[in-house]
Design goal:
Length: 202
């Protein structure tokens, strides 16, 4: 089962993905692999380092190439061995961040349309003012964080959510307002329960 965690910069994806991995290991007794995009491969690390200078279409293509390798070399082998995979960011991130970088939504989709559909894409939302307060205390913002605003990102994420719905993606939108990370993870687990029940026992 591939679960992806999406949402604007600073909404809590990394925090929630880590906690969710722990809870799922405990609840299912099955192996859980936590991963991220850009990946921790040489290409992914290069993209993180070079995000300030690679932009627009070139970045969209490079991110899609990193994702393709991620799926083929890391995600599918883990799924094939019965492991639950959680990815911190996936396609919805591209449908937002590359748009912030002035690439058209349909063009971004054309670079991503053949990737593996996740079992569920979890979109985290919060009050843009709360997110802005979190970003304000960061020592350094990435180029794309500095270019967009939480309110604009949320607007683009909503559009990407609707777009992916039309592509028949299984998605859920989780409202994180006034919820601590534990409560957010409980809300995600509630939506995963029927899917987990259909998995063979460990
Ligand atoms: N539900 C929550 N309530 C309060 N604080 C939270 C919550 N979730 C995350 N945080 C805090 O918000 C900050 C940003 O969280 P995190 O790094 O997980 O966000 P992110 O979405 O992964 O950000 P980015 O995309 O920029 O990497 C952290 O300091 C984290 O402890
Ligand atoms: C998956 C994905 C990532 N990016 C860029 C945006 C940021 O510079 C980094 C992600 O860093 P974070 O610590 O997770 O905030 O990668 C992108 O432009 N498009 C994508 O699809």
């Amino acid at each position: 089962m591939l679960i992806v965690i999406e949402g604007p910069n600073g909404v809590g994806k990394t925090t929630v993905a880590g906690l969710l991995a722990e809870r799922l290991r405990h609840r299912t007794g099955q192996p859980v692999h936590l991963t991220t995009e850009p990946t921790r491969t040489r290409l992914g690390e290069l993209l993180r380092e070079a995000e300030a200078v690679i932009h627009g279409r070139a970045l969209a293509l490079a991110i899609a190439a990193d994702r393709t390798m991620h799926v083929e070399d890391e995600i599918i082998p883990a799924l094939d061995s019965g492991t639950i995979v959680i990815s911190d960011r996936y396609v919805q991130s591209s449908l937002v961040l590359q748009r912030v970088d002035a690439v058209d939504l349909r063009e971004i989709w054309s670079y991503n349309r053949y990737v593996l559909q996740p079992a569920i894409s979890v979109y985290l939302v919060d009050d843009p003012r709360v997110i802005a307060t979190r970003l304000a205390v960061r020592r350094r913002l990435t180029r794309l964080e500095a270019t967009g605003t939480p309110a604009r990102e949320l607007q683009l994420y909503d559009q990407a959510f609707d777009f992916l719905k039309r592509q028949s993606w299984h998605q859920v939108k989780i409202d994180c307002r006034n919820r601590d990370p534990d409560q957010v993870v409980c809300a995600i687990l509630d939506t995963l329960t029927p899917m987990l029940a259909r998995r063979p026992a460990a």
